[in-house]
Batch of 2 targets.
Target 1
Amino acid sequence: MTDEPLLEVNDLEKHYPIRKGLLNRQVGAARAVDGISFEIERGETLGLVGESGCGKSTAATSVVRLEDPTGGEVVFNGGGRAGATRNEGGTHPNDVTRFDKTELKAFRRDVQMVFQDPSSSFDPRMSVGSSVAEMLLVHGMTDRHRRRAIVEDLLERVGLSAEDYDRYPHEFSGGQKQRIALARALVLNPELVVADEPVSALDVSIKAEILGLIEDLQAEFGLSLLFISHDMSVISEVCDRVAVMYLGEIVEIGDTEEIFADPQHPYTEALLSSIPEPDPRAKREHIELTGTVPDPVNPPSGCRFHTRCHKVVQPEGLNLEQSVWQALITLRYRVASDEIDVEKIRENAGAEDAVKAEIRTEFDLPQQLSDPEAERTLDRALERLAADDSEGAAEVLNAEFVTPCEETHPEYTDHGDGHVSACIRHREEVRSEAFADD
Amino acid sequence: MATQRPERFDQVNWEEVAGAGRFSLSTNAKGLLVTTIPLLALAAYDWLVLDERTPTFEPVGLNVDVPILDYMFAFTLLLFAFYVVLPLYQHPRLTKYYWREFRRNRPAVVSLVWLGVVFVLGLVGPLLITSPEQNVLHSYQPPVYLSVNAANAATCAGEVVDGMCFGTWQYPLGTTRAGKGVFAMLVNGFGITLKIGFISTFIAVVLGASVGTVSAYAGGWVDEILMRYVDIQGSWPTLIMYLLIIYTFGGRLWLLILLLGTFSWEGMARYVRSKALSISEEEYIKAINMSGASAFRVVRRHVVPNSASSIITDITLLIPGFLLAEAQLSFLGLGDTSVDSWGQIIAGGRDALAFAPWIVLAPGLVLFLTILAFNFVGDALLDALNPEAAAEAER
């Protein structure tokens, strides 16, 4: 066997056009997936983790071509396509995004998917057996008895009985339905299974059962898995490698153990700190992610995570406490998007000074910043804000409190063993400046 | 052994299987095909070989003619048998489930029995009891056990006691002015009702469901054009158009059925479209797309069957509408006077309401009961045909 990976995703993009007006002109695009790359080896499980809305599921549906990606390539080397080399024009013969109808249909046998919601993943008017057997029928198996025999055998393998063939979805529990969903994904004997949050809708005990079943099946049939989840504890249980996604981009990728032991990207740190700790005495920093994932139509410039990052870098010459600096950044963005209701604060506080103090309290800012230069700027901005000039305030803040994170898009830094992350703190010059006295 | 007949999913040689013949018909399609071909052949023979006046079965010695409406009726019956009744038999487990749910609604069960009677009488009745002949001597006979003033009846078929004419079993429900037995007319009316119900509904369902699914699936400008047409048809003064067409071409039953069916599917199209849109967002549709199935298969096997609850509920509202429309047009004197539809009987009896109320009452009551039954059955079907909702509610 060659050592090429089973699946190779290069700069995959899925942008949804946003159209407006009478002529349906495109006015922008929601960049749900914006240039992600990863590989899956044969027999390997890659976890794709991130908050909801970060583009995980879109990435999955684009990889399997349920939706057509808008850019990039997905090279699938399974199903007897191994050992292909690139064409002269640079395109790959195994590029899924360029498959024609026949190739795509064959590809459907090699890659299958398990969905999140067991309650809606089966046709309520079809017995579950026929739902599974339909996959065989679509691919040309016209022999009804053979279809039934195969599906009955498979139902037993996923922990159900052959008699369940004739039962209907409403007669099963969520966990049982997810078992049947696994059977449906397996029935065409695929090499890669994409599992999109397969256990998120299940109770804890059933979750463990299903995860165990997935691992058993994977071992028995040599499956590769792309496992999508928002739950780091699930990921740690099943995945060999993890890719952390934020707002359409992969911010960190590496071996599961490595990532859990030594996360490099602040977003990964935040996700890891959200895993509940069984030991109540264990002291661990709990990082709270504030706000929601920004709008993918208009993502933040530079590093997309900098608006919520607890390690956002301070500009040269500024040396504030990190939490204060983060609060300043938050204040800046809130002022810029005109989300602060000064009227209301004034009603409660009264005098201008009180309004300024109130705003500081609301954003967890101290009444006096440690850096006199920064204090002057903040005071000037708050004064304008109190005078109902939020544009002026935004101007002042935008001019002074600028983080290098928003100016440069971080490159990937290699931490060895395929552990890669994208954070500008890993670049030498930034490291020396900002962390000189760390 | 295993290599001879692999029955495990990972032992299937897909190169071999995927290349095999792909075109296969379901049992239902085969059944429909096998029965429709002779029907079509007979229709073609009737139309091409025999001249207009020769009854269809004269060459074999029977004086039975098959009018064009009966061909359509027979076809819709076949469709009903192979795509409504047979699937219920093929999926006993689901059928039992539906029946359990349906049974909870007592009035609906009674209504279903009544509709069964209408169906059987409508099918068999006209074969056993032919349309009654005029008999002026026996006009305005009262129903059996009842009596009227003998002066009202031309000659009394039964006994005359104290100047009162009593009804006889010869005319169980009395007679009309022309001396036709109301019971015999009523039985023939069941047949007409069945034809109106089946054929008009068939036309409306085919048009409505096709436009609805195409609209939902194609989207874009196709959707826009189809739905705007539906809006136009919905706001069209259909009654005035009926009047114009009937005035121009005469009130033929088949024309009425055609018109009713063709101009009543807007609601169906809207229902089916919205249902299909919500269905296409479901994960099981994604799973089926993931299998590489064609869009036609997805629509035919999953979207349409799952829209069935909308379609069937709409049908139970459409049919009463058709029956009422026919009765109303007949009452206005715009129906087909050559058939004994319930509406025609009512229209014929309206002048004699004062002294021969049975002529209006008997078909009126039957019409009322039938429409009521459809409403009850529709209500119960709506609940029974939605397993998801029921399963969610039980949790």
Note: Chain B touches chain A at residues 5, 7-10, 12, 14, 17-22, 24, 91, 93-94, 97, 282-284, 286-293, 297, 301-302, 305-306, 308, 387-388, 390-392 (CB under 8 Å).
Target 2
Amino acid sequence: MVSDARLARIRARSEQQGVRAVLLAAGDDVIYALGGYTPMADERICFLVVGPQGAAMVVPGVNAHEAHELLDGGPVSVYDFQDADGGGDALEEALRTAAGPATGGRLLVSDAARHDHVRVIRQVLAPDGIGLASQVMRPLRMVKDADEVERLQVASDAADETFGCGVAAIRRGLSERELQDVMLDSFRRLGSDGLSFQGVAFGAHTAAPHHHADETPVTEGALWFDIGCRKNGYCSDLTRPVYVGTPDPEFLTVHQIVLEARMAGEAAARSGNPASAVDRAARAVIDRAGYGEYFVHRTGHGIGVSVHEPPFMMEGDETVLEPGMSFSIEPGIYLPGRFGVRIEDIAVVTDGPARILSRLSREPVIID
Amino acid sequence: MPTDSRLIRIQDRVAADGVRAVLLSPGDDVLYTLGFTPPGDERCCFLVIGADRAALVVPGVNAHDADVHLAGFPVTIFDYADDEGPDAALEHALARACGQSSGGRILVSDAARHDHVLAVQRALAPEAIDLASLIMRPLRMVKDAEEIERLRRSSDAADATFQAGVAAIACGVRERDVHDAMLQNFRRVGSDGESSQLIAFGPNSAAPHHRPDDTPIGQGPMWLDLGCRKNGYCSDLTRMVYRGEPDAFYREIHAIVWEARQAGEQAARPGNPASAVDRAARAVIEKAGYGQYFVHRTGHGIGVAGHEAPFMMEGDETILEPGMTFSIEPGIYLPGRFGVRIEDIAVVTDGPAEILSKLPPDPVVVPV
């Protein structure tokens, strides 16, 4: 199950950059490198070390059983350690396996690695320098191959279906939390990998772009669901607004503007454009309509094994879009004390127009 | 509504240690300090604490939420737009927290992301960066009466959820189903949305961190290892269940582990080092001849984090004090056969340790 091809690509890029080895922290970088598997991440040292001579996983003894089961016989050697020993010796051995016995050199460590773990690496492996692993991983992880795009589609389908479950469950008097529970169950039933989120905001809460669902009961007014899961290692992220009752005319106006912004973003999601062009296209629509100050966040973020990853659809991100890049386009307008509207889709860059993963309509969902 | 007594204690330590400022990342450190934390993601976010004042650097998308939670609290909020990046906000926050005083080390949370530590380096150019645990560890390790009460309530939620898990064990049920039943119960009893509920049946139980899968629960042993965060504080509980009639060998192993668990409790006295708890529990298992099958430390501190200092293992010489809270969880894992672990949370007092779970240690026998 471990893909040698990805390890080879990581190796090739690190050699190009004159790096001795890359240390990937348990989590997203490891899921990418190993094609779907990562040991559990906690306060214990846990790294996949990739160097010119091989790859080795340093894993705490308590998780060693699973690592051996999944990795033994493949291209990744497993070095486990006991809690009382700390991970130092295992790290040294793993680095020798991956990069040979020489010392010094420059090491790259995952951007999301813990501060205390980076310090252990500095003390134990005494490299000449430590940089961010994104230097190697970012260009690889940004461009998805056909298998990855297929996994993103499957995760997106799960989000579409879960959105349907959430809408079907809406009743006056039900709390945001209860709607969240319905969608959590749906994601589990559909086989998410355990990581999922189900944002629910009702009424004035919809004006806070990251509202945490609480006990507020749903009555009449605006609502949005912002949901996603990880399935087979890849993530989904979807936002749709809903209105319970007869929509306030300004809600419909704002919805229409956000929808136009969302479509403008999609039109700019073309190979050759910079990521910032997607932001500018969407923002221009909202600015022109006079709501610019109420669009308080970037237009989108890359998505893959992480829910948020490069490129970022915002001013200043000049990443040139290529076929296989996948990211959210999610403009919004948030009117404090009143309501907010956001429409979010995942786009995949192709040679032609972007492919949109969600099959849901973008018209406002209105519930009587 | 948070109180600022913890903030003041941290400020006192900052002044006493001649540290310029301590930067806490979203998650446990901020939750401990403010009773609230912004979500942690790839965007830079820090609570900056100087000797006199505190400031929060937060991405714009989460600024509103922070404003609401910190109303009336002496923390100035510096938010930044996605396309600006955090550098200016970090500089302003540092100036607010420690005025014009320059020089001195900056401490950054142990769990902070590698790339965020580099952002601190770039934006603030401190003389040196060190781990925030230098200040936070002694404060977080010793719980006050209110924190212990929260740990008790979280433990009650775990006890009730264990019962819900046992109730879900029936013919044709898979590990995943029991996991789901416990997850739902945690949500019902009001966990903060963060919970872990593991179950391992039969030979799976010989892997201490087995992840629940589609294994059907037949006749034989299993453990349930579960916990949640409630009102900011965590629980962690492991108990054994046996479907059918346990055989003599299983009962013998269970009795050894229970004896080890009790020996750990006996050693959990003020004045003893943390390692003494490990040694006491391990000695029982070694004497019985199963030392090589006890493959992890005996326990870990618990509070706002599920795992935190001190660690009950060889080498951790933290002297136990009243108010320290940690798990005592010895286990014996027989590869290919089964594993037994009994886990309780102990609170060090002036006398014998207080054990939070009210559940008996015996295996729960579920008739077939």
Note: The mean pLDDT of chain A is 95.
